[in-house]
Amino acid sequence: MVEPVGNHYVIARPVYSENAFNEEHEKLHRYHKTFWDHLKLYFSCSPQRAKKIALRLFPVVSWLPAYRFREWILNDIISGINTGLVAVLQGLAFALLVNVPPSYGLYAAFFPVLVYFIFGTSRHISVGPFPVLSLMVGGVVTRLVPDDSTGNGTSTNTSAINDERVMVAASVTFLSGVVQLLLGIFQFGFIVIYLSQSLISGFTTAAAIHVLVSQLKFMFQLSVPGFNVPFGIIYTLESVFSQITKANVADLVTSLIVLLIVFVVKEMNDRYKEKLPAPIPIELLVTILAALISYFVNLEEKFDVAVVGKLEEGFHAPVAPDADILQKCIGDGISIAIVGFAVAFSVAKVYSIKHDYPIDGNQELIAFGLGNIVGGSFKGFASSTALSRSGVQESTGGKTQIAGIISSVIVLVVILAIGFLLAPLQKSVLASLALGNLKGMLMQFKEIGILWRKDKYDCVIWVVTFLSAIFLGLDIGLAAAVAFQLLTVVIRSQIPSCTVLANVGRSNIYRNRKDYTDIYEPEGVKIFRCSSPIFFANIEFFREKLITAVGFNPLRVLRKRNKALRKIRKMLKKGELQVTPKGLICMANPTYESEEELDNNKIEELDQPTIMTDLPIRINWSTDLPPGITVPQVNIHSIILDFSSVSFLDFSAMTVLRKVISIHEFVRLDIDIYIAGAYDGLLDKLERSAFFDEEIKPSMFFLTIHDAVLHILLKKDIANSPKLKLAEVTPQSSSFLTLLPFQYCQAPCNALHSYSSVCYLSLFSKDSH
């Protein structure tokens, strides 16, 4: 019964053990589906299920018929044009990261968009090249097709190298698409949870540094070989600075000017985004201006700058991936698939929350997988979503993926008709545009201080991920970062927070005894909380912390008691001890035996329960013992284990916990163990595991800590009072009354038959009556 009393509430109920509660309240029998049940359901077929699967597999069928043409079409057209222009420039720029001719970046910006329109679930992300993925693909390209793979630098050999590199990029893209498709089909969309926000932030920041370093050769126009090996970034910087005197000044000046303009305008876009109707398309303006200047000034001939050159018009026929290449880049394909999905899904999640619509992780895997398969078949490279490009699509009013289709039309026009206009554009301009899109990633360095204040583990994950990706490379660095992140989870669960609790505020609230002054600790009772699952890796830590909390080693005390009993028997037999009404009196000078003599090589006998049936008197271990016999004092009669934060116990933990409770330890010292707040199903699991015996019984489980405390206090008073023993008051027949905040118990408790746990609440008050 719950009654409101002003801003307090009053609860009156019996003190419940788990068994008592289940006897009074009947539990429903629920059938839990087995693995085979889920498997049958997954492969079952019905008209309704077929329709559901079709709608899930082709999301466009769901949202396209409901498209609000008059309200949304203009916004989608404007957004699509702006996004398409950005996609063209980013496709050309990110192709430099892949080390393939710029025109192939347009294929990567075209085909995945068409596939995502049909299969994707996000309405706002812009699918296409992403600098991190482009750099990862470029790493595979330079590893398998290095710059010096042919003997000389003739145009024929350069063309052959480009063809090989395009094939490598297409093959690894196809492989990553297959990996994503399989993960989606087998419902592995949850894998993104293993890439925390700290890990993704550190990884993308490191990737931004790699992008910056990789573009230096275009900004300085130097011949720098690719180093896709651990510490490759150091070798690249060494190569750049060793040739710094050979840098092309015109390319360097152009790059710096473009970078400055892009950064300034992007900062203006961010600062005044509420006032601007649309972001200033600075990439487009800079590209047009740079192309015109390069064409009319003839920079290629006068200053020997590197230009994009003639872009290929039209499309290539689809090709199958090279089997030999696939065998050499399996690991790369997996890492590219996971990183691409993780980045795209995190961006899609942001927009889905902002605009209140659902996205499906598994379907996103399928959409990106098919997009990369199609893109790789047409010699594109891996796609995901670029943060800046998606921001343009959403901020300019895009409502659906119709904007994506419009953007792909813009890319198509460039591929088929006007690509030649970009031929005089300097490669250093594209490199600067690629670097200009890294502003958001580079600003993530600010997160280090924030994370250090909020969660030091996350901060360490960020730093380790960043350093691993910087020095080991993006592929090995990602694997190392994920392994380290999982290690931190193991460490945190292996070394859980264990605390001793006390009653706070004279109520039913129990908190860490070190954090409060107004606390009450029942005499002889220890309340111990472990805030973690208990399993094989941390059960020994749990045991050590419990022993530290109670202040003694129960196994050592048990052995000391058995040694003392052995010595008492010897002294009684020799007449050195005499039994009197006051206890045992020593009749001779005490003798001290060594630990080895007492053990007598039979240590297992000391681990048995203390048996006193053959003695003429029962030994009270809390009183003074005969001279020469010392046993550690134990001032605890009950221990409550708070399992409210324990989500599971494995078999190893059950075995050790059983040993801790009874076989060698607490119960054999006449210390009662109670477990409070155990999760649903633990009792059944323990029964199936044969956890209970004559010493450990299910009655030790209570619903809450307060139930267990009241039961202990009631049991203690019953044991100390003959009148209460006659009454035979049980925990389930006593009542539980709590006032929050605590109000002193004013009702008299002199009637034995109405002895209730409210009396114990009065014990918590300062003026106990």
Automatic annotation (TrEMBL):
Membrane topology: Multi-pass membrane protein
Keywords: Membrane, Transmembrane, Transmembrane helix
CDD domains (alphabetical): STAS_SulP_like_sulfate_transporter
Alphabetical list of Pfam families matching this protein: STAS, Sulfate_transp
One term of GO molecular function: secondary active sulfate transmembrane transporter activity
InterPro entries: S04_transporter_CS, SLC26A/SulP_dom, SLC26A/SulP_fam, STAS_dom, STAS_dom_sf
Protein name: Solute carrier family 26 member 3
Source organism of the structure: Zonotrichia albicollis (White-throated sparrow)
